[in-house]
């Protein structure tokens, strides 16, 4: 009887222990693939946080047929609004983007998602250099550049 109880307790602890490291590992992967940039003006402040998704091992990660990023955009100040992205280029090639709603499963890949940022999924053609430079235009006077390093294959 003692043997059965010890086995059940050991299985329970082993099952719980395996879930935690995968969540921690996902967050660690996402943090290493995240970059940020700020634009600070007199009355406004833009925070742009980008995460490169292709190197993150998770079932929600899109296929590697394109380069995938999630951009979090927050505008602070007295009158914040949803600052739309006007244009995106990756390594001097135009990229496409779409706005993500708060319940989108891609947001689970981020190290931190919040309700006050606006999220965009960026897609660009597959690129072979190990360094990816993402240029984001919020408006003609506000542009940021984020640089990501791919994992060697």
What does this 3D model show about the protein?
By secondary structure, this protein is an alpha+beta fold. The chain has one domain: Sandwich (Immunoglobulin-like). It contains 1 helix and 9 strands. The chain has one helix at 2-32, and strands spanning 34-40, 44-52, 66-77, 87-90, 93-94, 96-100, 118-125, 131-139, 142-149. The strands form 2 sheets. It has a 5-stranded antiparallel β-sheet with strand order 1-2-3-7-6. A 4-stranded antiparallel β-sheet has the order 5-4-8-9, with no helix packed on it. The protein starts with a helix and ends with a strand. Mean pLDDT is 83; it is low at 17-21.
The arrangement of helices and strands along the chain is: HEEEEEEEEE
Spatial ordering of strands, largest sheet: 1-2-3-7-6
**Overall CATH architecture:** Sandwich
Structural class given helices, strands, pairing?
A: alpha+beta
Q: What fraction strand?
A: 35-45%
Domains (count): 1
Cα separation of the termini: 50 Å
Radius of gyration: 19 Å
Q: Helicity range of the residues?
A: 10-25%
Instruction: Specify the overall morphology.
Output: globular
Q: CATH top level? A: Mainly Beta
Give the overall average pLDDT: 83
Subunit organisation of the chains:
single chain
Largest sheet: 5 strands, antiparallel
Q: How many strand units?
A: 9
CATH topology grouping? Immunoglobulin-like
Count of runs of 4 or more consecutive helical residues: 1
Poorly predicted regions are 17-21
